Amino acid sequence: MAAKHDVDWVTEQRAGYRIHQSGDHVSGTYMRVYVPDTATKPGNPLKSIVYLHGFALCIPDFYEEHMLQLVKEGYIIFFPDFQPSFYRTVLPSASPQTREDEDIEHWKRWYSIATGKKVTQQEEQALSVNELLSLDQKEWPQAEEMKWGPGLEQPMASDVRRVAWVLLLLIGFFKLLGFIRQEYSKNIIHLLSTVGISLFQYPTCWLANAVKLTENAWKELTLDYPHWATTELSTFAFGHSIGGLIALSVPSKVTCDSDPRVVPQKIVVADPAPSTLMGIPGFAIWLLRRLHSPFTQKPIEITSTGEAIKVPVAILHGGSDKLVTPQQWVLGTPSNYDAISNSVDKAIYFSYSNPPGLIAFHNQAVTSTQFYGDGLMREFGGVSREVQISLR
């Protein structure tokens, strides 16, 4: 009798590979795994990549073209959404996601959360996923009790209230800005509202969640592919922006009890942020700090996690990156790059723009930014329509 999975998985077969998906974005349990057909059969060596997304780019749509190129090269791709969000959880076969809510709906959501009885009268209560969703004015279908991701904590009601008021202030500010820059305003409101629930969590919990989700996925899918337990495996971590920082920080979470299948033998990152405090606009960080948001309380910083890296590292950085400038990695004594002090082999490469095709901006690793529109993405790392990183 076959062993039973601990979570429900959806599986879809495509030409040359399979997609396995489980969990939900809102609870921080979402995982998608791409398995090439060669990895489903015994006798072939295995190679895997843990693919870690940038801030707010929590759905596979942003990176899928790049991930599919890697699948065609024989890599098993693990895409954990370590950052809870209000993105819709859809089947792999669904069309690319599009924005639906109007600005007023985002304001209503966060006003409802900020003024809900659970956060105003029971501030020291830790909230479950279902309790948090019950504060939202939007109806959420909940067939059963949902659990937070394995590396996340239950947020305190007081933290939820404070973050909700910050988001209301930001939504109001950007709504006013919309009289001047309508497309940018509309999209930044949607982005911040969508990932607002992740600001109740410490970034160190995001890191733990990325590791735990991947460990659990290996365990679960080995039930479907028993030969994975005994086959030689090469493991890599790849990350973009804040996901790049998390990839670089995975070794700092490794213990003697860690599953070796999630411990990267090599790390490659694209335009990584040296700190999670660089994830959102500076004045938003200032507000969140003033109100003691967990997001600003325990940041991940390469100056703290870099010394744990002992494997080869390659940093790919755009010379035209304005969101995380190249100077942030190489200036200073010691520099952020110097913080990776124990790697057996490390290198940092800077790419340059070759118009019109190759633009060395922050989003070189992103293969589609259409979800949020060009007006926002020009300011949020760059507009991308193709797999630039593989062309470099």
From TrEMBL:
Top-level taxon: Bacteria
Keyword Membrane (UniProt): yes
Database matches in InterPro entries: AB_hydrolase_fold (IPR029058)
Protein name: Uncharacterized protein
SUPFAM superfamilies for this protein: alpha/beta-Hydrolases
Keywords: Membrane, Transmembrane, Transmembrane helix
Spans through the membrane: 163-180
Organism: Acaryochloris thomasi RCC1774
